[in-house]
UniProtKB/TrEMBL annotation:
Matching PANTHER family: AMINOTRANSFERASE (PTHR43094), AMINOTRANSFERASE CLASS-III (PTHR43094:SF1)
Highest rank taxon of the organism: Bacteria
This protein's record includes keyword Transcription regulation: no
A Pfam family hit: Aminotran_3
Organism, as annotated: Sporolactobacillus shoreicorticis
Listed name of the protein: Aminotransferase class III-fold pyridoxal phosphate-dependent enzyme
Signal peptide feature range: none
Xref: NCBIfam families: PRK06062.1 (NF004718)
GO molecular function, one term: transaminase activity
Key words of the record: Aminotransferase, Pyridoxal phosphate, Transferase
InterPro entries per the UniProt record, alphabetical: Aminotrans_3 (IPR005814), Aminotrans_3_PPA_site (IPR049704), PyrdxlP-dep_Trfase (IPR015424), PyrdxlP-dep_Trfase_major (IPR015421), PyrdxlP-dep_Trfase_small (IPR015422)
Similarity annotation: Belongs to the class-III pyridoxal-phosphate-dependent aminotransferase family.
Length: 456
């Protein structure tokens, strides 16, 4: 491709490109001119700390030298359709199974996160012969029709009226729970009991799967209370329901473990993945199934497929990416750096009146802002995201962060912090200094000017 001037790129972008989840007139994209590690530089020459790894996928950072080198060897292998065996597909499947929970046996490759979830739903229905699928409010599983129906927030609304048999239940969200629990275990027992009732009302024999983001990410890094995941696992086992964990965002080291399920004493029946498997250097996703499910398909037709299942380029990049996690000890590093980030986040909560809650696990974190710490009034009311609040306070705060060179995004009243796993302690501290400057400005300019709260 011959070089194109920035002005031309922006003009063509505005004329011909539809941007996701946005009113097109509000879109004014920058161009990334140069990128390295946790940094990128935009077309104005400004340097940014990429504190959300683009969309929480660039775990190995920008322009990783080993992946750039791998691209030079891409053309050496002929393309082949899914019916062929290829070195990279076979090797990547083996590598994934080697790092997955011990009960996992085989991988079905898809293109990205949403379609992986669609295939997981189909697999669960085939294996159980049941049709209902439980998933949670305050979750996001993707934008395809099936994954959209799984999602429990307003990005689902364009696929409604929804698919019959897709049932929602509550995600534990202790910060905003009106009931006071004496312990996390008590909270977990409450939510598991509620889920049990819902299963009974819906008829356990009709439920194929309970589908959950292991740790809901874009809805604000909602870490399950102690005992909750184990309780859900027990219900699944009791009623013959498959437990499906969506590890698209939380998987591949993000939480300081290879998969987030490892934080709990559970083994899901199915796990879905995408993002971190190639860190976005080439699109890839997939479904990992247990030995029991793999055995089932020995004698039954797997009635699903994709033109690009196990695509040669993406699986080759996936193999190189998994080698990087191992050779650079990125998962262990994420756990260590998570402690550094956690300390800064807890300080933030103690120091700033607008910080209602901070939630963090490894390098997966959210800062939830409030107008009032006592009443917990959110910065924007629920459901006011996505264009309805374009001039509102969260957009202003994210703008202030951007001016500081701290690149990330928000959802509802939470700001996501999920930098590449290669980040150093020094870089975390530098970035968090920028965050604090932006927050101080935000409180002064928008929240407490005139000693009273300003509304959007
Ligand atoms: C937990 C989770 N599942 C699924 C998806 C959808 O993935 P994709 O956008 O690759 O289809 C996302 C995207 O952010 C996600 O965070």
């Amino acid at each position: 491709m011959k070089p194109i001037e920035d002005r031309q790129i922006k003009e063509d972008d505005q004329l011909y490109v539809l941007h996701s989840w946005s009113k097109q007139k509000d879109v004014d994209p920058k161009i990334i001119k140069k990128a390295s590690g946790i940094f990128f530089w935009d077309d104005a020459g400004k340097k940014h700390y990429d504190m959300c790894s683009q969309l929480v996928y660039l775990n190995v950072g920008h322009n990783h030298p080993r992946l750039m080198e791998e691209f030079k060897h891409i053309g050496e292998v002929p393309l082949s359709s899914p019916g062929f065996a290829t070195a990279s597909k076979a090797e990547l499947a083996r590598k994934i199974i080697e790092v997955a929970p011990k009960n996992m046996a085989k991988v079905f490759f898809a293109n990205a996160g949403a379609d992986s979830n669609d295939h997981a739903v189909k697999i669960a229905r085939m294996v159980t012969g049941r049709y209902k699928i439980f998933s949670r409010y305050r979750s996001y599983h993707g934008a395809t029709f099936g994954a959209g129906n799984l999602s429990g927030e307003n990005r689902r609304f364009t696929v409604e009226p929804g698919l019959p048999g897709f049932i929602k239940f509550e995600t534990p969200y202790l910060y905003r729970e009106s009931i006071h629990f004496d312990s996390e275990e008590a909270a977990a027992a409450f939510y598991v009991d509620r889920l049990n009732s819902q299963i009974l009302y819906e008829g356990p024999d009709s439920i194929a799967a309970i589908f959950m983001e292991t740790i809901p990410g874009s809805n604000g890094v909602l870490i399950p209370p102690k005992g909750y995941m184990e309780g859900v696992r027990e219900l699944c086992t009791k009623y013959g329901i498959l437990m499906i964990c969506d590890e698209v965002m939380a998987g591949f080291g993000r939480t300081g473990k290879m998969f987030a399920v490892e934080h709990f004493d559970i083994k899901p029946d199915i796990m879905t993945f995408a993002k971190g498997v190639t860190c976005g250097y080439s699109p890839l996703g997939g479904v990992i199934v247990s030995q029991a499910i793999a055995d089932y398909f020995d004698g039954h037709v797997l009635m699903t497929g994709l033109t690009y299942s196990g695509h040669t380029v993406s699986t080759q990049i996936g193999c190189a990416t998994l080698d990087i996690y191992k050779d650079e000890h990125l998962v262990e590093h994420a756990a260590e750096m998570g402690d550094v980030l956690a300390e800064r986040l807890e300080q933030l909560k103690a120091r700033f009146v607008s910080v209602g809650d901070v939630r963090h696990i490894g390098l997966f974190a959210a800062v939830e802002l409030v107008k009032d710490k006592q009443t917990k009034e959110p910065i924007i009311a629920y459901g006011m995201d996505y264009g309805k609040d374009t001039v509102g306070l969260m957009k202003k705060f994210v703008g202030l962060l951007l001016n500081q060179g701290f690149y990330t995004y928000s959802h509802e009243s939470s700001v996501i912090i999920a930098p590449p796993l290669i980040i150093t302690a020094e870089q975390i501290n530098e970035a968090m200094d920028l965050f604090e400057s932006a927050l101080a400005m935000f409180e002064k300019e928008y929240l407490f000017s005139d000693q009273k709260l300003m509304t959007p």
